[in-house]
Design brief:
single chain; three-stranded antiparallel sheet; binds ligand BV8; six-stranded parallel sheet
Length: 243
Amino acid sequence: MDKTIVILTGAGISAESGIPTFRASDGLWCNHPIEDVATPQGYRRNPKLVHEFYNARRAQLKEVIPNAAHHAIAELAANWDGKLFLITQNVDDLHDRATQATTPKPAFRLIHMHGELRKARCEKSGSIFDWQENIDGDSHCDCCNAPGNLRPHIVWFNEMPLEMDVIDEAASSCDLFMSIGTSGNVYPAAGLVHTARTYGRAHTVELNLEPSAGESLFHEKIYGPATKTVPEYVRRILAGGVV
Ligand code: BV8
């Protein structure tokens, strides 16, 4: 049980909690071109539109709860004696809430590589603040005590994802790499399975609704809704049937 597990999650793990994914027909991006709402250029062009896009998603967090897939990973975090890195592309707080409801082992790490809706960042100082309400041009940060410097603490396209040194080290040295609910379209997240398989010794498994863009890089592929496939796979891991 002292093996290292890396779990990468994407929007699909939160879909059954009611949070739309990015690329489904009713997805988040369909109402907004990526360039307008998820790039620094789009933010500079129209900060009001970008604040509205993230304010609506932050407000939705009050109406959704973690699902069986989030809770199954939290159960693994509370029972796995080896290292467990939960690396999420998601900016919602459903993994945070599910793991806070248990007592994860000390070797558990949750990393939001694309940032978090419930945090804001000062563009002047780089300070990061817990933030539950709307952000707009009048929002003050404690560091400057002035309006207009706060942005969502979100990694936009052409910005460097967070904690990539920790993430790359974990992916290259893990024994099991699980990818859950991601289409495998966005890099560097989509390249982690290659790292795990090529530079590491990992068994790689994809749990998704349908084959992702990186499907051929997975030793094992399990398709179906995450609330069904993830609890079943976690039970297999804890029974010693995987690594
Ligand atoms: C960077 C925050 C460099 C915003 C996001 C290499 C090749 C090609 C392009 C690139 C490359 N390297 C870099 C790039 C450019 C770019 C990129 O990847 N472009 C793509 C689109 C081609 N990457 C970047 O810009 C990254 N930065 O590389 O910086 C750098 C270097 C030096 C200095 C500075 C910079 C930054 C990328 C981060 C962008 N931000 N999010 C926000 O959230 O609003 S990305 C966004 O897409 C979300 O984070 C989302 O999580 C992520 C990935 O999408 P998915 O999670 O996979 O969601 P999707 O809808 O696509 O798929 C859902 C899946 O779930 C589906 O497969 C579906 O079948 C499944 N599903 C649905 N329901 C269920 C389910 N599965 C199970 N059960 C269900 N019920």
